[in-house]
Each structure stands twice: as structure tokens, then as C-alpha cells.
Design goal:
The complex is a heterodimer of chains A (162) and B (277).
Chain A: H1 2-24, H2 32-43, H3 48-65, H4 70-85, H5 94-118, H6 126-161
Helix pairs in contact in A: 1-2, 1-3, 2-3, 2-4, 2-6, 3-4, 4-5, 5-6
Chain B: H1 2-7, H2 9-25, H3 32-65, H4 68-81, H5 88-108, E1 112-120, E2 128-131, E3 144-147, E4 150-158, E5 163-167, E6 174-179, E7 185-189, E8 194-200, E9 210-213, E10 225-234, E11 240-247, E12 256-260, H6 263-276
Antiparallel strand pairs in B: 1-2, 1-12, 2-5, 3-4, 3-12, 4-5, 6-7, 6-9, 7-8, 8-11, 9-10, 10-11
Classes of the chains: A mainly alpha (162), B alpha+beta (277).
Chain lengths: 162, 277
């Protein structure tokens, strides 16, 4: 699992910095780092989610602004909370997972907007944020389920080998 | 001790992680994280090259297969010359942009060098790009990135062979500006939609007016296009006008930029040298 995480983390860097911007021709892109954090928080040891979230967020921040920022904090805490609530939700339930992606994306961006406000940055109008978040949520749902499917597939292959 | 930690790990892991976050946050003042990005830049350059080649192939050949008219022209040209490359359209575009850069360089008279954008910030809506020039090529902080259409941003972090550019749409970006037609002063501020701040309430500005950099602030050279006004509204407080703007340069499809030497920086250096003497 750890090796798979680092391979996907490595791939996520190239996907988000180079491949998605070229393919999508827009600044909004699916958040592979969020998908990785959610998967590993849901399907691994509960205390490990925070570590995976921390590492994913740190890489995302460094490759965004060259410094540690709000994504480390949001993904780290998300990893912790998802690891904490996973005993209360049905893990294989698709609607529950979709809801989790929506809530996580909103949480991540709310934290980012608070962070921006704290540091005297411009906060944009509600309509602009809403349309942006809507697209972001849709892309995140697609990318998260793709990552879930890939991880499950690789895990199955691995267990078959064993 | 270890037994205690193991027993209470779920309770202490979050405060511990927050403490680590706080500690590593203090290292933001150093270049340690940016140096880490620099390690990846060779791989990013290769991937960027592959993507460009694929795009070149796509737009130069496959895309044209679906366009009957263009396809016929291409076929004819292929028959005629037999030497038409897949990259013809790309080369033409590159040639055009280089010509524009050259005439722009001559026009401005400021020393400049070209750079390629090798990747963009990883987060959605990030307003940063990373270019393939660093201290080795004479790039320093606060140099300005431009296109013939207008200002792109400024260099904020530099490593040996990589630099990070904050685009003018970055929420942290504020540039002193003037409206070309009315000469009214304002501040061009970044964000998802760029805003003009502190624009005189009685200013006669309207949609479509061009915004230029004023040259004040000592970073951005004066009289370079920044953007144009897309919406003007009177502030209910009665102090300033609220205006939205869009950047003059297309910042979502950046491939090559010109990096201008900061003329003010040179002057400061010269003044420092002369005062030392």
C-alpha cells in the first residue's frame, strides 16, 4: 500500500502540473491528491490517513506555490476525520463515497478561502466560487472513483499473486 | 513511554501532526521547498516535451484529418513537396511568436531573455507557472515575465535552473496601474476575476478601456498592457469605482514568455556601487 501510494503520488505530480493543464485547457483540474488521501484514509489503518493526507497535501502545496500552505492542513485533517468516521459509514456504498468526495472538496476549499482571508487575499464573489466549486466537485468525483477503481484492481491483482 | 504512545496514538496524532505542520510552516521563509521542486524539473521538462510533441502531432496532422478543406490542402501540398512536416502549423505559430518577441524586444529596449513554461502549479486555479530558466541564466527575483500582448507576472522564487512566476491573476498580486484613455490611477489586483482598486469615483472609465502598468512600485516597467476593463460599477460607499478586468495576455495557454531585466533593480545596484566608491 505504501509503495502504491508513493507511485501514485509521483504520478499525481506530473498529472496535475503538466498533463491535465494540457488536456483540459483550463485551470480547474481533478484533485488526485484528494482522491489518494480519501482512498487510503478509508481503506487503511485509521491513524495512517493523517500521514497520507499530510504527505499528499505537502506535495500539492510545494508544487503549487513552492511553500507549505493550506492544502497540507486540509488534507491532513481530512485524512484524520475520514479515518475517524469510516467505522460509521458503509465503505463500499457508492452514494456515501460520493457524498464524502463532495464534503471533502468543500472542506478543502472552505479552508483555503479562510486561509486566503487570514492572509488578506482577495475573496471572490459567491457566484464565481459556486461555479468553480461545482466543476471542481464533478472532476473530483470522477478522479476519486478512478483512483478507487485502480487501487482495488491493483490490490486484487496483488492478492491473486499471493 | 512507547506503550503509552501506542495506546493513545489516536488522541495524540492530530495535535502532533498540527505541531509538525506549524514547524515546517516556519521553513517557508527558506528556499528548501522550492529546491525540492527543482529536483523534479528535468522530469517535468521531459514530460512537457512529450506533451508538446503529441500536441504538435495532433494539431499538425490528426486534427486536420477531420477538416476536409484543410485536409485537401495538406494532401495537395504533400503531393507537391513531399516534405511537409507534421509540425508545420506549430512551427508557423512558433515563428510568428518569435517574430513578435523580437520586434517587442527592439521596441522596449529593456534587456530580456526567452523562457519556456515547463509546468503549472499543481492545485486547481493555481496562478503560478514554472519556467526553465534560473540563476544560471541570470534570472533573479522580481524580474518581470511578459508576452507581446501584455504583462504575465513576476518571478518570485529562483533556483539554479528553475523559476516560479506569480501570474498577475494571483490573489497576492497588486500592480500600480493607469487607465490608458483617461490616465486615472488605480491598483490592478489579482484574483479569480481581476479587480481595479482605488479607482476615482468620478473617473470617466468604461468597458473596454485598456489598463497599463504605471511603473510605480519599482518592479513592473511602465506603460505595459495589463488588461482591459470588462465591468464598471459605482461603489455604494461613494469613494471609489468598482471595476472588473481581464488580463491582456492569455494566461491559460502560456508556452513561452520573455523575462525582462528589472531596470529599477539595475539602477539601485548602480547607486549602491557608486555610494560604495
Amino acid at each position: 500500500m505504501v509503495l502504491m501510494f508513493f507511485i501514485f503520488l509521483f504520478l499525481a505530480i506530473f498529472l496535475q502540473t503538466n498533463i491535465f493543464p494540457s488536456l483540459l485547457h483550463t485551470n480547474i483540474k481533478p484533485d488526485i491528491f484528494l482522491a489518494l488521501t480519501l482512498y487510503l484514509s478509508l481503506f487503511s489503518d485509521s491513524s495512517k490517513g493523517i500521514i497520507y493526507g499530510f504527505l499528499s497535501g505537502m506535495v500539492l502545496d510545494i508544487f503549487t506555490e513552492g511553500a507549505i500552505g493550506p492544502n497540507t492542513l486540509s488534507l491532513m485533517t481530512l485524512g484524520f476525520f475520514v479515518g475517524y468516521i469510516k467505522s460509521f459509514v458503509l465503505l463500499e456504498n457508492i452514494p456515501a463515497q460520493t457524498l464524502l468526495v463532495i464534503v471533502s472538496t468543500l472542506y478543502q476549499w472552505i479552508l483555503l478561502f479562510i486561509y486566503s482571508g487570514v492572509f488578506q487575499l482577495a475573496i471572490n464573489s459567491i457566484s464565481e466560487i459556486t461555479s468553480f466549486l461545482f466543476t471542481q466537485i464533478l472532476l473530483n468525483i470522477v478522479s476519486t472513483f478512478s483512483i478507487f477503481f485502480l487501487f482495488d484492481f491493483l490490490k486484487q491483482k496483488q492478492s491473486l499473486k499471493i | 513511554m512507547l506503550e503509552f504512545l501506542r495506546k493513545h496514538k489516536n488522541k495524540i496524532i492530530l495535535p502532533l501532526a498540527l505541531l509538525i505542520y506549524g514547524t515546517i510552516f516556519t521553513l517557508n521563509n527558506t528556499d528548501i521547498y522550492f529546491t525540492a521542486v527543482g529536483i523534479f524539473s528535468p522530469a517535468e521538462k521531459i514530460i512537457n516535451g512529450i506533451i508538446k510533441d503529441m500536441e504538435e502531432y495532433w494539431y499538425g496532422y490528426i486534427f486536420l484529418v477531420n477538416t476536409e478543406r484543410d485536409n485537401l490542402i495538406l494532401r495537395k501540398k504533400l503531393r507537391d513537396s513531399g516534405k511537409l512536416k507534421y509540425s508545420f502549423e506549430e512551427l508557423k505559430r512558433e515563428n510568428k511568436s518569435l517574430k513578435e518577441f523580437l520586434s517587442f524586444k527592439e521596441k522596449t529596449g529593456i534587456k530580456s531573455s526567452g523562457a519556456s513554461v515547463i509546468f503549472r502549479g499543481a492545485s486547481s486555479e493555481s496562478d503560478t507557472v514554472f519556467i526553465n530558466r534560473g540563476t544560471e541564466d541570470g534570472i533573479t527575483k522580481n524580474m518581470v515575465a511578459v508576452l507581446p500582448e501584455g504583462i504575465v507576472g513576476k518571478v518570485v522564487k529562483v533556483s539554479k535552473s528553475l523559476s516560479m512566476v506569480y501570474l498577475i491573476t494571483h490573489p497576492n498580486s497588486s500592480i500600480d496601474a493607469i487607465i490608458q484613455r483617461t490616465r486615472d490611477r488605480c491598483v490592478f489586483r489579482g484574483g479569480k476575476s481581476c479587480k481595479l482598486k482605488y479607482l476615482n469615483y468620478n473617473a470617466d472609465v468604461k468597458k473596454g478601456d485598456i489598463i497599463l502598468s504605471s511603473g510605480l512600485g519599482g518592479v513592473f516597467p511602465g506603460n505595459f498592457p495589463l488588461g482591459k476593463i470588462v465591468r464598471v460599477e459605482k461603489d455604494p460607499s461613494g469613494f471609489f469605482l468598482n471595476a472588473d478586468a481581464v488580463p491582456a495576455a492569455d494566461l491559460s495557454h502560456l508556452e513561452e514568455v520573455l523575462i525582462l531585466e528589472n531596470p529599477y533593480h539595475l539602477e539601485i545596484e548602480q547607486l549602491k556601487k557608486s555610494s560604495e566608491q
